[in-house]
Amino acid sequence: QVQAVESGGGLVQTGGSLRLSCVASAWIFNNYAMGWFRQAPGKEREFVAAVSGHRGSPSYADSVKGRFTISRDNVRSSVYLQMNSLKPEDTAVYYCNSLDTTMTPLGSWGQGTQVTVSS
């Protein structure tokens, strides 16, 4: 069962910005950390960023530190990924998911949202 729905992807030039959104059920959102992952063509899905369930503490993959910012809106049961200074290597389908205490994705994967960065 898909537990989150992603949106906000698109085509952007190198150096540009995009803001991704993810809406989850209130129960999931209120009880679990949330994370963003991405999968580029021919590659495995990889972790991008996560935000804890209570304090909203963020964590990032080294490849996006300083460029991406994850945040959550507890009222809207939403998590966002602000992506700045985008690079062609950021091109991928981006997914969000709830996370357990070991940062392992819990729910089924949704359709994701495509981000394409042109050089």
Structure in words:
It is a single chain. With 119 residues, the chain is mainly β. 5% of the residues lie in helices and 48% in strands. Strands 2-10-9-4-5-6 form a six-stranded mixed sheet. A four-stranded antiparallel sheet has the order 1-3-8-7. A hairpin with a 4-residue loop joins strand 7 and strand 8. The protein is globular and about 40 Å long. The termini are far apart. The relative contact order is 0.33. The mean pLDDT is 93.
Q: Which structural class should the secondary elements be placed in?
A: mainly beta
| SSE arrangement, N to C | EEEHEEEEEEE
Unreliable sequence segments: none
The helical percent reads under 10%
Report the sheet-strand fraction. over 45%
Secondary structure elements and their pairing?
Elements: E1 4-7, E2 10-13, E3 18-24, H1 26-31, E4 33-39, E5 46-51, E6 58-60, E7 68-73, E8 78-83, E9 92-99, E10 113-118
Parallel strand pairs: 2-10
Antiparallel strand pairs: 1-3, 3-8, 4-5, 4-9, 5-6, 7-8, 9-10
Keywords, please?
single chain, 1 helix, six-stranded mixed beta sheet, globular, 119 residues, mainly beta
Briefly summarize what is shown.
This protein is mostly beta strands and 119 residues long. Helix content is 5%, strand content 48%. The strands form 2 sheets. It has a 6-stranded mixed β-sheet with strand order 2-10-9-4-5-6.
